[in-house]
Amino acid sequence: MGLAAPTAVAAPHATHHAAVQNTKSLVVLWAEARPSSFPPINGTLTIGGTYTCTVGSTVQVGFSSLQIMPTSMPSGAGFLPCGPGVVDAAWQLTSLGTPDVHHGHVSVFPTFDGAGQLPVQLTA
Fold first, then answer.
1. How far is residue 118's CA from residue 58's CA, in Å, rounded to a whole number?
2. What is the DSSP code (8-state) at residue 55?
3. % pLDDT > 70, the chain
4. pTM (2 decimals)?
5. DSSP-derived secondary structure for 65-120
6. More confident residue, 92 or 13
């Protein structure tokens, strides 16, 4: 996996309920492809959504993905902050550059806190 820091994290909600204490969850909602314009400028895939992480100080997030025609397999990894107020916070993560990233359908295979999540089908 390529390493890339999450590029933006919205301020977490200031309030939380007992139901979300000691909770970690991730939702992937969107993807955006930025194809390469010409060598040596590679394209990137950015994915994002919301997450909750009320325990610990950080949590690892990552993804691998697959685009077909032409085949591209962008991936990325980074860390997101955790704490008592991190409930439904926005996040995004950008892959390392690759020359094959393109617009179209993408299968995203996210990981969160060391565990694989269900794949997500998106259009980027």
1. 21
2. S
3. 83
4. 0.82
5. EEBTTTTB--EEEEEEE--TT-SSEEEEEEPPPBTT--SSEEEEEEEETTEE---E
6. 92
